[in-house]
Amino acid sequence: MKLTHGSPFWLINDGLPYHYKKLTQNITTDVAIIGGGISGALAAYYLTKAGVPCVLVDARTIGLGSTCASTSLLQYELDTPLHQLIEQIGEEKATRAYQLCGTAIYKLQQLMKEIGYKEYEARKSLFFSANKSEKQFMEKEFAARRKAGFQLSLLDEPALKKEFGLKAKYALLSELGANINAYTLTHHIFQHCIKKGLQVYDRTCITNISYGHAQTILKTTEGCTIQARYIINATGFEVVNFIPKRIVDFYCTYAIISEHQAEHECLWKDRVMMWNTDDPYLYMRLTKDNRILIGGRDERFSNSVTRELYLEKKAVLLEKDFKKIYPQISFKREFEWCGTFGKTKDALPYIGAYAKTPNTYYALGFGGNGITFSLIAAEITTALILGQKHEDAVLFSFER
Hints:
The chain is α+β, with helices and mostly antiparallel strands. It has helices at residues 9-14, 38-49, 82-89, 91-115, 135-147, 157-164, 182-194, 304-309, 311-325, 370-385, and strands at 4-6, 27-34, 54-57, 73-74, 121-122, 125-129, 152-156, 170-174, 178-179, 199-201, 206-211, 216-220, 225-233, 249-258, 273-276, 282-286, 292-300, 333-343, 350-353, 360-364.
């Protein structure tokens, strides 16, 4: 599946920072990880740290799937607001999912310090609405998050205008959030883990898997084999190539980014990340060189051709969306791109075992919280491979 189209900013800005070999011989390992994006990288990090020998393969060049198109906002919020998720799956499970995502942000920060990664910026997150009718919605969400232990404030229209110059009615200002670059982080994690024994192969497509109770054998297009005790499948939206069960619906999201405005120190207060409740929704962040990154205008995915034909139209609409809330800020578009992502029935990822594929664990961080979900998945799958129980595994299981 072609996951992206256009000119993803991170790929243009950072290029191909490292090169990896293609697998050209038969090998044996404890764990084979399929997928060389941020999910696979985090799985490799946790396994390598635990001393588990592993090999990672990707059909593409490393990072050129969904990861290079990520807008890389780290937030604890899920696609479904907390008070609505409570109604859907119950207070205990919904609250736990949100809290795990919050904790994941702190853990990612520690991971990045450990590997010497510098492109991390702690940022507050502003969840806003331009509609007066959303007052009750915001109040319910504020109460649910406060009860769950999150630090946040409920802001009204005058405060938003004064503090952020934003044309909106209500907003929740969360203290916890961050900006990163998922593409370069993925490469940094791999470089760190390779020094500790990880083997990484790209341009290595798995065409067949023989699942066994004692071992699994993966075969590549080149005819090479990987014999492993376990598999971690971190292929994300391409998991449809591995399991028949429909667990996710596919959508397209669109993003644009402005020219840099390095001559300005700050375009809005505290450089907060922003997203709104509207349909279609909008999310925004600033890069270090003061580019304005805007995303949203999602569409149900039908095929790659339709997704790509919409790109220019969606880019124009995103510019107009921005101008409605920030008419005083100059925006000159430089790049635009689109990518495919997945939504599940309850906004939660799928992590763990699937009955029809023995000795295989899945790390599928679907939805808008893909990066934080990926860290949670790495923790859970590592624990399961080590023969340990994980108290949160049931929350994200295929049987839920």
